[in-house]
Amino acid sequence: MKKDKKQIPIRKAWGLNIRALHLWWKNFPDIFVSYTLHAIVDALLPLIGIYFSARVIDELAGARRPEQLAHWVLLTLLIGAGTELLLAILWRWRNSCYAGTYYKHQKLYAEKMLSMDFCDVDNSETLDILSQIQQNENWSRWGLSRIIMHYQMLLTGATKIIGSVALSVTLFNSKVTDTSGNLIILNSPLFIVLILGVFFLLTCLSPILESKAMAYWASAAAQARMGNRVFSFYGFIGFDRDRALDIRMYEQEEFCNKKLKDDTTFTTKGLIARYARGNMGILYALSASISRILTGMVYSFVCLKAWAGAFGIGAVTQYIGAITQLSNGLSDIIGTVGDMRNNAYFLETTFKYLDIPNDMYQGSLTVEKRQDNNYTIEFKDVSFKYPNTDTWALRHVSMKFHIGERLAIVGQNGSGKTTFIKLLCRLYDPDEGEILLNGINIRKYDYREYMQIFSVIFQDFKLLAFKLGENVATSKTYDSKLVINSLEKAGFDIRLGKLKDGLDTYLYKDFSDEGVEISGGEAQKIAIARALYQDKPFLILDEPTAALDPIAEFEVYSKLNDIVEDKTAIFISHRLSSCRFSDRIAVFDQGKIVQVGSHDELLADSDGMYYALWNAQAKYYKTDGERELLLIEC
User: Fold this and answer.
1) Considering only CA atoms, which of 234, 215, 379, 381 is closest in space to residue 287?
2) Residue 400 to residues 142, 223, 381, 450, 580: CA-CA distances in angstroms?
3) What is the pLDDT of residue 633?
4) φ, ψ for residue 542, nearest 5 deg
5) Is the CA virtual torsion 575, 576, 578, 582 positive or negative?
6) Which residues pair with 377 in a beta bridge?
7) Closest by CA position to 333, among listed 170, 179, 200, 180
8) How many C-beta atoms surround the C-beta of residue 390 within 10 A?
């Protein structure tokens, strides 16, 4: 077998499982009570049946006393029915406790994602680890999902062993008669030790072989994850509204079907099928065969002792059932221990994600709450490169933001504009230099408090399928007047007036058939309103009008002063028309600020990059040789 993982040492595997069990206990303490009671009753139920059935058979094969027979039959029925009813109640309770665990696990992963440093969230390796965890759980419940099953199997096995030993101990004490001939050997202590040793060996061997077979299954995890990814993407792509138009216009359904057909992961040509036809199948077959051999030996030993007069027919039923349950209990424990070792590999991935450290210094200084928004931010010789890269995204950047200033940031793709904003919002820390807020390094401020001075509209913003008012306020409760005022400033007032339910209108139809579908431009206006509602000192807009038509864009910028008020506003835009409304413009190129000035100052420099960028766009809007954009002339 060519495995894609190394076998984890037993001690480490045990430690990972114990830690996972503690995690279950911390998050779902109630589930242990229901699982414990269900496991005990589930293990005892067949033993109770075995015991009382043996008493009934003994009476039928012996004295046949009607009153005694009725007594045992009635006890068998009442205790059996009562235990079955109790088991059904416990089964329902156990399943009810377990029902929400999947979503609580997802909440656990989501809370970790929200609490970790953004540089780790932004790292593709982090997202890949999380994807592995989720796909392992969806595929075969590997990882945390398997822990509670292991707990139940161990407890069930232990209960079976204790109960079975109580019912079968007299099997080895019972003596055959002296007239049994060669069967007198069954009374020999040495023979009893030998037969117990064989029973134990076969009992252990069967689950060990099954665990080795399961290791092949576990080793196919990487291929199974990829197969699931292919199926999850191409199998459901037709339901994706964002891709629906492209699929139909370019007839991509045939391409998707071919991708699905070409993937052999879960077909007879796949790795799992090859394992099943090879060593994995052989091991499973051997495990099942040994289990049957053991059953045959148990029957032979018990029946020979009964034949030799050691006990009656009822005891045969009791001993065969008890020894079988004892073997099953041992198999449950040994098989579970083997499965726990296989699962340790997946738990290692889970804890690799949960143990990602927060290395970013959080700071402790309180950010002063100023009514006059008198905040000054300065970049001092800041340089930065993303983790695992050797290329500088920003190099020796120095700039100071003035109170109430409108700053436009322009430049070609990859010039460092968005990186500049990420550093400003402290999503990353610079590698060199420092960023100051009111003369103090921003790393010294409480991280959460510092972030509260910014309202940001990122280029790839998202709205939720909630009510309009909730989207703007990002809260269930909100100030309706302030929400409406923010929407009006963002230019959404006309559409708002046409909505039957006003602020209670659901966006999209995910949760309501009455929900409305909004255009990209309308979504962008709502995003602007959301930023305005927060009323933070710094307003940052990354491509704030990219989805708006030229007239709507002009309307937004023409009332920029009403939108921004006394805030410091920073615009990132590829549409240089926005620069006409800015106090200063910073031109980025290859991670550096190459020009700073007003629109007129920069346009006067015919050798500068801003002049080149402006004219590259202006030529598409020229009218009678004018070099002003048509947008500005509206």
Assistant:
1) 215
2) 52, 52, 11, 17, 20
3) 40
4) -95, 105
5) positive
6) 401, 437
7) 200
8) 6
- Confirm if 621 and 631 have CB atoms less than 8 A apart: yes
Residue 461: count of CB within 10 angstroms of its CB: 17
Please choose, from the candidates 457, 469, 455, the residue with its C-alpha nearest in 3D space to the C-alpha of residue 524: 457
Instruction: Specify the amino acid at residue 132.
Output: Q
8 A C-beta contact, residue 312 and residue 62: yes
445: β partners? 365
C-alpha 628/C-alpha 518 separation (Å) is 32
Mean pLDDT by 10 residues, the chain (634 residues): 61 93 90 93 91 86 84 89 93 90 88 91 89 85 91 93 89 82 84 87 85 82 80 78 78 81 82 85 86 84 85 86 87 89 92 92 82 80 91 92 85 88 92 93 91 85 90 92 91 89 91 87 88 88 70 67 77 76 88 91 90 78 46 40
The angle subtended at Cα 22 by Cα 224 and Cα 105, nearest 5°, is: 45
AA letter at 600 = D
State the Cα–Cα distance between residues 473 and 478, nearest whole angstrom.
6
Considering only CA atoms, which of 35, 56, 47 is closest in space to residue 83? 47
DSSP 349-402: HHHHHHT----S----BPPP--TT----EEEEEEEE--TT--S-SEEEEEEEEP
Query: Which contiguous run of DSSP H or E holds residue 107?
Result: helix 101-115
Residue 559: per-residue pLDDT: 66
Q: What pTM was computed for the model?
A: 0.77
Overall size of the chain counted in residues = 634
What tokens were used for 33?
A: 């009570």
For 543, left (φ over 0), alpha (ψ -120 to 50), or beta?
A: left
